[in-house]
Design a protein that fits this description.
Strand order of the largest sheet: 22-27-24-25-35-32-31-34-29
Strand content: 35-45%
Distance between the termini: 135 Å
Number of strands: 39
Radius of gyration: 42 Å
Structural class: mainly beta
Shape: elongated
Largest sheet: 9 strands, mixed
Number of helices: 1
């Protein structure tokens, strides 16, 4: 009986020993089956840019993020990023060939990397132990020039690139460019926009981003461009309504004549009428000279606060109107009221308004009470009073007939027949040309 138990015990021990030996041998042949992280390395000595990873080792199934940042003036695309997978020869579970990452290598956002806009890529670590090595090739970007056309004199207008350099030539394509406008008198001016156009062609604008406080950015395109800074200026106190089509203005900056408005300077007085010279569109566009009294005309009512763009310009205009940038004590002269200039005693003249000195009128000793406005070469109706002749019967109505036969209480653009109907039923017609 004892010999039987002894024999069975020896056999069981031998079986356990054999199984243990077989397991160790299998593990020796196959290696350690415990999951191990795979190393992720960036190749040293990469030129003209940097490559970084969010982890230096990753388990199978983990996501690895690669950030590619070219040096200033260089760029890289996804095809320039290289990922090499090396098989771990000490693990029999690894395949004979390294897997491809074509389906797991994904760009995040813009796949094109530049100095200002690094590109980000991700990939998923495969299911077998591998060594991952990452590198990148960077290509030099072409450079282009920027021509800066400044705004008003007296304001600081600067442009810089993302690397701190100033505007000019040799700006790489894709560079973030910053334009800064510092206004010398922000109470009177505000920056509306910075206009960027290809070769000064407004049909090919480059988009700008307004960051506020006079700071704008744009991305340098692949061509030479022109940058123009625009400052919007207020026409202080200028207002047009249904009863007031004229206004005087005197300012410290050269301004474009607003849309829907015509500008004039006063060149003389004939038969109690002001003779005007148009600020012509030949100046492309017409502008209001600085520190010169002008008359502004609008056929239609406009907002109380009117703004316009400032500009640099030269001019040959002269005007008989006098004005001031500040409130002033005006001597006896003529001031605009409605659509005419009326003789006024000395008094206060508001800032940016104009008056006509008394001595500018011929025979000032018998100066007329009212001066009408006459635009040379045009018969302009600025009020019913202008069509009333001395001793005429009261006017009942005034109508305007266009060359197409349309009738209105106001003149049409172009040639009109003005029909004056009086209280006694009689009518009178006149030809009126409205620009």
């Amino acid at each position: 009986m004892n010999r039987l138990f002894t024999s069975v015990g020896v056999r069981i021990f031998a079986l356990i020993t054999l199984i243990s030996f077989s397991t160790l041998a299998a593990e020796a042949q196959s290696g350690d089956n415990t999951a191990q992280p795979c190393p992720v390395e960036v190749v040293a000595n990469i030129e003209n840019g940097t490559v970084t990873v969010d982890k230096t080792e990753a388990m199978a199934g983990e996501t690895v993020t690669i950030t590619v940042t070219p040096a200033y003036g260089y760029a890289a695309t996804s095809s320039d990023v290289n990922i090499d997978l090396t098989i771990d020869p000490g693990n029999s579970r690894a395949p004979h060939l390294a897997p491809a990452l074509g389906e797991t290598f994904h760009p995040v956002g813009d796949a094109r990397a530049t100095h200002d806009f690094p590109a980000t890529y991700t990939f998923t670590m495969p299911e077998y132990p591998l060594c991952v090595s990452i590198s990148a090739n960077f290509s030099k970007l072409p450079t282009y020039s920027v021509i800066w056309v400044p705004g008003m004199t007296g304001h600081e207008l600067r442009m810089s690139t993302s690397n701190g350099g100033y505007w000019g030539g040799d700006i790489p394509e894709g560079t973030l460019v910053t334009v800064t406008i510092r206004m010398t008198n922000p109470d009177d001016f505000f920056v509306e926009r910075v206009f960027v156009a290809e070769n000064d062609n407004r049909d090919n604008e480059v988009e700008t981003t307004d960051l506020g406080n006079g700071v704008y950015t744009f991305i340098m395109p692949a061509f030479d461009i022109v940058v123009r800074g625009f400052e919007k200026a207020y026409l202080h106190g200028v207002r047009f309504d249904a009863n007031n089509h004229w206004a005087t203005y005197y300012g410290d900056y050269c301004l474009e004549v607003p849309d829907g408005v015509q500008g004039y300077v006063v060149t003389g007085i004939t038969d109690n009428e002001l003779q005007l010279e148009l600020l012509t569109a030949d100046d492309n566009p017409p502008f209001i000279p600085r520190k010169m009294g002008v008359l502004l005309y609008s056929e239609t009512p406009m907002d109380e606060v009117i703004t316009t763009e400032s500009r640099i310009a030269s001019w040959d205009y002269t005007s008989m109107l006098k004005g001031s940038l500040d409130d002033m004590e005006m001597p006896a002269g003529y001031v605009l009221y409605g659509d005419k200039f009326y003789l006024s005693r000395p008094g206060n003249l508001p800032a940016h308004r104009c008056y006509l000195p008394l001595d500018s009128v011929p025979s000032s000793a018998s100066a007329p009470r009212v001066l009408k406005i006459h635009r040379l070469g045009e018969e302009i109706v600025t009020g019913i009073e202008e069509v009333i002749t001395t001793g005429a019967t009261d006017v009942a109505s005034v109508k305007y007939v266009s060359i197409t036969g349309a009738v209105s209480d106001r003149p049409f653009s172009g040639v009109n027949v003005m029909v004056i109907t009086r209280a006694d039923g009689t009518t009178e017609t006149r030809k009126v040309v409205k620009p």
